[in-house]
Amino acid sequence: MIETSVLDRHRLGDHACVIVDDDRSRLAALAVYIRAGLRDDDRVLYLGPGGDELLDGLAGLGFDGAGARNRGQLLLSTPEESYLASGAFDPEVTMGGWRHETALARAAGYRGLRAIGDMSWAARPVPGADRLIGYEAQVNRVFADGSAMAICLYDRRLFGHDELRRATWSHLSCVDHATAPGARPGMRAVRLTDPPGVRLEGEADLSNRHALQALLEHLVEDTPPVEGPLTVDIADLRFADDAAVRVLLRTVAAGAPRLRVVGCSPAIQRLLTFNGAEAIAR
After folding, report:
1. Structure pTM?
2. In sequence order, which residues have a C-beta less than 8 Å from that of residue 125 and are 6 or more positions away?
3. 94 and 208, same structural domain?
4. Does one domain contain both 136 and 41?
5. How far is CA 213 from CA 136, 139, 245, in A?
6. 114 and 11, same structural domain?
7. Strand pairing partners for 126?
8. Please, are residues 15 and 139 in contact by the beta-carbon 8 Å criterion?
9. Is 182 inside any structural domain?
10. Average pLDDT, rounded, for the chain
11. What is the pLDDT of residue 250?
12. Nearest to 12 by CA among 44, 60, 46
């Protein structure tokens, strides 16, 4: 059973892979996440099958999902109406859709968008499904703006071990039945405006390396034109493994002299020195 209290602590900007084992753990995860969104004045958008069954399940747990839908705070959409609206999965169109829905939520007066993507459709022979994992890494760039968050549900009964491993690498954090009750999201990335750049929080390692790479490789592209350098603030990065540091180094090398790294801990400084780049952090 998933320790769902972890999902209650996610916030705008987060992008988590949630691996469920059965229908019970799926409903429990959805209930905690949706309840938190209604509490925090987010618009909640569910993209997945069985919307009416979800509302029945929520009612069985004691809260009024149907009422939230009636007042427009909870929106339900099938994969065919969202991910597969064009008849195939198109990552670029989907990322644009998240930006559009986020803007609509903010315009309607909500704090932000809290999204749920049930990825069971990708276990079928759907055109474009082979592009899903690349999309999962790239969409972190959308959520880093801090106005939306998402969990992506992967059912262990539908996806193999290697597929789930690649999916987790492309998210900032992962939640499953082994997640400890007091766990925090693995990594967070927050877009900065003053100074412009990005702040990394938590832990950067194998579990989220593809997400980190997508964020950093496109940092210059995703930041509005500004005078002066862009900042990668790692003061709140509790841990980074050697490979994550190499991703950071490649990003700085490709963007120099536009990028600077600040807030380097002694442990990460030692890794930088080991990799021959002790001078990049300030």
Report:
1. 0.91
2. none
3. no
4. yes
5. 12, 12, 10
6. yes
7. none
8. yes
9. no
10. 91
11. 84
12. 44
Residue 259 has pLDDT above 90, yes or no: no
User: The tokens 């959520």 sit on which residue?
Assistant: 143
Rounded-to-integer distance, Cα 239 and Cα 263, Å = 13
> So what's the pLDDT on residue 186?
85
- Cα end-to-end span (Å), the chain: 44
* Neighbouring-strand partners of residue 202: 187, 237
DSSP tag of 109: T
Nearest partner of 152 among 173, 123, 128, judged by Cα = 173
Q: What count of other Cβ atoms lies within 10 Å of the Cβ of residue 71?
A: 8
Q: How many CB atoms lie within 10 A of CB 81?
A: 10
Distance CA 190, CA 52 (A): 35
Q: What are the φ and ψ backbone dihedral angles of 17, each rounded to 5 degrees?
A: -90, 120
Helices 51-60 + 23-39 axis angle, to 10: 80
Q: Is the dihedral of CA 131, 133, 135, 137 positive or negative?
A: negative
Q: Does residue 60 register a pLDDT over 90? A: yes
Q: Please list, residue by residue across 232-271, b when 16 or more beta carbons sit within 10 angstroms of its beta carbon and e when fewer do.
A: bbbeebeebeeebbbbbbebbeebeeebbbebbbeebeeb
Closest CA to 19 of 120, 105, 138: 120
Beta bridge partners, 77, equal: 47
Range of the domain at 217: 187-274
- Stretch 40-46: mean pLDDT, rounded? 97
107: Cβ contacts below 8 Å, ≥ 6 apart: none
CATH number at residue 196: 3.30.750.24
Which string of DSSP letters, residue by residue, matches 37-81?
Answer: HHHTT-EEEEESS-HHHHHHHHHHTT--HHHHHHTTSEEEE-GGG
Closest by Cα among 187, 265, 177, 250 to 219: 250
| Exposed/middle/buried for residue 109 (C-beta within 10 Å: 0-12, 13-18, 19+) | exposed
Which one-letter DSSP state was computed for residue 165?
A: H
